[in-house]
């Protein structure tokens, strides 16, 4: 059985995956409205509502019906500037977004986590991602889909030398460790949003690549 999301809320619409997902949402005839709060203005579209500003400040002001929410928020410790700043985005802001989406009526949350997310991980990045997943599960969503992609491949706005050098190799790694194109991840997220399956689903990178073909 399939749901047909009509009113969508998306966070991170200017990010690597979020941009691809937003394009897809706005091209879907079944989507009546996309609510996409961002720091910088997006190109106008008849079905797009784009509050501009700091997401934390915008969350209480968001209004209207929401059926499905997509959380594409994510940073790196280097990008954030410190472990505390990273946690503020990848844990605190993700949870704040999820709570507001639920208040607006969303029944399905699709969230991008990361390969290796584990609340008991020794690596800080993976531990924060795992703690975020556990906190989202505790919210008791009717439907929660957690996507765990490996390293995302695609043209970013900011230059990341390590990712640029590693990308050719990551395309040939086995299974869930192989890099995934952001456009393929966006396709997978949309397909997952259309499926009605109550409870929590965790989708690893190999399955995300398959769904995104």
UniProtKB/TrEMBL annotation:
Upper taxonomic lineage: Bacteria, Pseudomonadati, Pseudomonadota, Gammaproteobacteria, Pseudomonadales
SMART domains named in the record: Semialdhyde_dh
Pfam families, sorted: NAD_binding_10 (PF13460)
InterPro entries: NAD(P)-bd_dom, NAD(P)-bd_dom_sf, Semialdehyde_DH_NAD-bd
Protein name: Nucleoside-diphosphate sugar epimerase
Semialdehyde dehydrogenase NAD-binding domain sequence ranges: 7-106
């Amino acid at each position: 059985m399939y749901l047909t999301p009509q009113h969508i809320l998306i966070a991170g619409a200017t990010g690597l995956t979020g941009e691809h997902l937003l394009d897809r949402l706005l091209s879907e005839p079944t989507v009546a409205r996309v609510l996409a709060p961002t720091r910088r203005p997006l190109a106008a579209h008849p079905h797009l509502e784009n509050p501009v500003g700091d997401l934390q400040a915008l969350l209480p002001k968001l209004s209207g019906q929401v059926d499905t929410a997509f959380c594409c928020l994510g940073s790196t410790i280097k990008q954030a500037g410190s472990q505390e700043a990273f946690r503020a985005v990848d844990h605190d802001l993700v949870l704040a977004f999820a709570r507001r989406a639920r208040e607006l009526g969303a029944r399905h949350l699709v969230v991008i986590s990361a390969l290796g997310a584990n609340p008991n991980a020794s690596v800080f990045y993976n531990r924060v991602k795992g703690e975020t997943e556990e906190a989202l599960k505790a919210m008791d969503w009717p439907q929660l889909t957690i996507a765990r992609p490996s390293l995302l491949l695609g043209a970013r706005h900011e230059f990341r030398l390590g990712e640029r050098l590693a990308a050719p190799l990551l395309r040939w790694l086995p299974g869930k460790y192989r890099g995934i194109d952001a456009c393929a991840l966006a396709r997978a997220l949309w397909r997952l949003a259309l499926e009605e399956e109550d409870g929590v689903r965790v989708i690893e990178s190999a399955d995300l690549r398959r769904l995104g073909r």
